[in-house]
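ingest -> validate -> predict -> emit
validate: passed (alphabet ok, no gaps, 634 aa)
predict: started
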Amino acid sequence: MSLSATEIQARLERILPRVAKPGRYVGGEQNQVTKDWEAIPTRVALAFPDIYDIGLPNLGLAILYQALNARPDVLAERVYLPWIDMEAFLRQERIPLFSLETRHAIADFDILGITLPYETLYTNTLNLLDLAGLPLRSAERDERHPLVIAGGHAAYNPEPMANFIDAFVIGEGEEVLHEIVDVYSEWKAQSGSRPALLRSLARLPGLYIPSFYTPHYTADGRIERIERLHPDAPAQVTKRVVAQLPPPPTRFIVPSIEVVHNRVSVEIMRGCTRGCRFCHAGFVNRPVRERPVSQIVSAIETALQQTGFEEIALLSLSSSDYTNILELVDAVSAIEGQHLVISLPSLRIESFSVELMEKLRGARQGGFTLAPEAATERMRQIINKPIQTEQLLETARAIYSRGWQTIKLYFMIGHPSETLEDVRAIANLCKQVIAEGRRILGHRAALHAGVSTFVPKPHTPFQWVPCDTTEQIQAKQQLLRNELRGPGLKMTWTSPAETMLEAWLSRGDRRLGQVIELAWRNGARFDAWQDQFNPHAWQTAFEQTGLDPDFYTHRMRGEDEIFPWDVISPGVRKSYLLEEYHNSQCQQTRPDCREQCFACGILPTFSSLRRANPGPLWKCPEVGTPRATTEVQP
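emit:
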């Protein structure tokens, strides 16, 4: 039997003075929601499987927290993973993982909802389940245990974590989470069985129940077929999409300690129309939906009053693609009585304007970030990012001349068919950019090149291609380290071992669950932290299972191959992705979808959105009707 909230609190009082940053574990922050535990019939624990400092600012968790707590019949409380010192004390004192709001053990909640925005949280998720006193494997949990659900971008390939999660939410959670709660509440009132609950959940659009599917493999390890084990399980689970974005959250929790982002974050637009072929988020978040300027400004004003924050982040995959971005920045800048810093974390070179830059002058101390991704015209055509070098240099000149001293450029190495000359061009382009800065600012000009390594992600046109080998990555990184030296130049990169881990986890099948569990038992956790990442634990786990890691990373996949993630549909047709892959081989680019629809499949899949969002339309040849061009709302 788990400890009561009172017993947990008593034991915590003994250990909190002995850990670093006890503020991570005390709760009681401004704007947290605390309800009467005994009076609420359905209790949900919302978990982010990393420490408080990282998890508290997560916007997805904030949206669900506010939405669920708006219901009188539901309480939602938060849980984060303890840091290493606190974990040791919890295990030593036999304190189960608990919620921040009321100190109740996670095992006492009805539903445990886990946010998985990236794959390197998988071993943390197992650690979270274990600290909560829950069986790791879904098959070992019954009516006495919380329903364990997970969602987020990593859920678009749920198979590596299929053995540990009862149900995956595919796509956007604002609406479906309420449906899950309703189904659970009805099941609980009837004292139903665990299988009955899963059958009811399987009938909800956007819910993937891993136990209702079994993959079968060929002799060489490829997937032969995916067998459905229950008639309620759909042949393919199509993602959920919110037709019209609801008002953004405003009651942000004010942290007890310093966290990665102390700011009001407002998602101004969801989805992207650019079609960069390497970008997982760009394909799975279609279609584009924008929030009205008035709604955004109203939310910011309310959030500032309720938090006291002084930084505003206007979030989307491409903030500068927001139709009314100049009007929005003007309106936010005009908010009275505030000394605000406006942050646009994602700006595109091709949609960036000098006028927008002028409006952001108040934030110039933070530097400017642009993402050319590649440095040669050939590579840009392959990845469908058709910007010109002179366009980038012109933008750099405008940035430096208006007072910004640092420009950060994001590049990616390892794209399909990349050569060392393509990599050398990255160094040459960086040198050209900082040369522009030195002509304008002298020695104060600085350039930071962030160089990540490409991983071919599911549901993208590059899902068929292999990763670079460790040796290839090392050679390319060494070339750049040799070239990018000198005053004002800085380079950061991702270690090849971390890239391989991301590739295994994002491209893996259900068998990889054994590797994840063994790696965790071998000591792997906090894999996203460079100082905690343990490559040896993963290498040993692969050896223990007999699986070949290269099978997941270094082979070309057949065009007719069944992927582990084919049971999931992001709404974009696999045949369209293959067509785009062929276009990349021919170095053929495609323009922004706002200019022309290329029939990817997303609009007819969600034709009901037309009824939810009537208004001006832009032409979509796929369905033979016009569709919106200004508001870009199908």
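The first strand starts at residue 42 and ends at 48.
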